[in-house]
Design goal:
Bound molecules: cytidine-5'-monophosphate
Number of helices: 14
Radius of gyration: 25 Å
Helix content: 25-40%
CATH superfamily of the largest domain: CoaB-like
Distance between the termini: 50 Å
Structural class: alpha/beta
Strand order of the largest sheet: 12-11-8-13-16-17-18-19
CATH architecture of the largest domain: 3-Layer(aba) Sandwich
Largest sheet: 8 strands, mixed
Shape: elongated
Number of domains: 2
Mean pLDDT: 93
Number of strands: 19
Length: about 400
């Protein structure tokens, strides 16, 4: 998986000769794992065709703000919500001026104004236009408004001059876009995450399992990596590839998951149990395939170890987060779990027909002793980032509180 796996990047292309590099930027963003949609200004269309950018992005290019057809499909608000980050590359002097003013008179400027996600620009212009006091004043405004400024580089320019104003190369832009997601909230911490189902063998070909694709747990592991943590992902059987930069350990049964967790938990600052662990396993595993000779058969089952509760019971225990998949009375069941398993947070989600399992979207109710926080329905990758931001904040609060207590005379 790439560093931008599951990220939705909206690439804005404005009018400048560097627009010819936009097709390469799209391609490299996609190589890094991102899904890319392109918005072009009218000026950009003078330099590169929408057809080229449609072909490399795999999606129609968005160009019109006031077009009933476009607004009925994915209009400016949908695009603004869709994007995990907006990169405007190349960003012309004119576009920077309009962004600094907060204009919304074309699709790209309207999307930049309407999005909650990070916005970055990669300036590209003649060196004199870059150095002009008006552009520099706009630049200062953009920085003040938390717009990321990628570049520009110095060097020879299409106009024949030499100086600052060259757009950064697409590979450099991709690296900087990846950095937008690196929050640093979990810098220096170790996080252990469980994910996926477990498989409790009945015989060599049959077993008991739970419905779980592993998508949520893997997204949580990836979000923790992005936040700067060292991540150990302990996963039951899934069809997902190992997340990049996490140490992934594959297991089958609840017992194996339990043992792998406890082999690594001493180093963990935070434990997040996302796995759908089977609650029961056969007391005996048949050595050979069981033949269907009887009309009825009974399986003798015993409880599996409760991994989450066993971690929360450690002294000292890491900051412990459990998941609760419920079909009803979400908060009540989550609160019970919080108390009986002695957890810091329970992330509860509603499951049932078409909800939660294998889908790409989910919502969570974060239940804590003195707070309830709702994370609304959104793609699992984004939901996982919101969960990690919440966990990081609570972890820091708990630990700084401890430091204060210790320091009190
Ligand atoms: O008690 P319940 O199974 O509903 O709790 C769900 C939470 O407990 C999840 O976080 C799950 O990963 C964890 N769990 C566990 N070991 C088990 C059963 C559940 O870690 N044997």
């Amino acid at each position: 998986m790439g560093t931008l796996t599951n990220k939705r990047i909206l690439l804005g292309v404005t009018g400048g000769i560097a627009a010819y590099k936009s097709a390469d930027t799209v391609r490299r963003l996609r190589e890094a794992g991102a899904e890319v949609r392109v918005v072009m200004t009218a000026g950009a269309a003078e330099f590169i065709t929408a057809l080229t950018l449609q072909a490399v992005s795999g999606h129609p290019v968005h160009q019109q703000l006031l077009d009933t057809g476009a607004e009925a499909g994915m209009g400016h608000i949908e695009l603004a919500r869709w994007a995990d980050a907006v990169l405007v590359a190349p960003a012309s002097a004119n576009f920077m001026a309009r962004l600094a003013q907060g204009r919304a008179d074309d699709l790209l400027s309207a999307v930049c104004l309407a999005t909650e996600s990070p916005v970055a620009v990669a300036p590209a212009m003649n060196q004199q236009m870059w150095s002009n006091a008006a552009t520099q004043a706009n630049l200062a405004t953009l920085k003040k408004n938390s717009i990321g400024i990628f570049g520009p580089a110095e060097g020879s320019q299409a106009c024949g001059e030499v100086g600052p104003g060259r757009m950064l190369e697409p590979t450099e832009l991709v690296a900087l876009v990846s950095d937008l997601f690196a929050s640093g909230e979990l810098d220096g911490l170790t996080v252990v995450v469980t994910a996926g189902p477990t498989w409790e063998a009945v015989d060599p070909v049959r077993g008991l399992t739970n419905r779980s694709s592993g998508k949520m747990g893997y997204a949580v592991a990836e979000a923790a990596v992005e936040a700067g943590a060292r991540v150990i992902l302990i996963s039951g059987p899934t069809s997902l590839p190992d997340p990049e930069r996490a140490h992934t350990i594959r297991v089958e049964s609840a017992q194996e998951m339990h043992d792998a967790v406890h082999a690594h938990i001493a180093d963990a600052d935070i434990f997040i149990g996302v796995a759908a662990v089977a609650d029961y396993r056969p007391t005996q595993i048949a050595k050979d395939k069981i033949k269907k000779t009887q009309e009825k058969m009974t399986l003798d089952l015993e409880r599996t170890p409760d991994i989450l509760a066993s971690v929360a019971a450690l002294k000292p225990a890491p900051f412990t987060v459990g998941f609760a998949a419920e079909t009803e009375n979400l908060e009540q069941h989550a609160r019970q779990k919080l108390a009986t398993k002695n957890l810091d947070i329970v992330a509860a989600n509603r499951v049932g027909a078409d909800l939660g399992f294998g889908t790409d979207e989910n919502s969570l109710l974060l239940v804590e002793p003195a707070a309830v926080t709702e994370l609304p329905m959104q793609p699992k990758a984004r939901l996982a980032r919101a969960l990690i931001a919440h966990v990081a904040a609570r972890y820091r609060a708990k630990h700084s509180a401890k430091v204060h207590t210790l320091r009190r005379p």
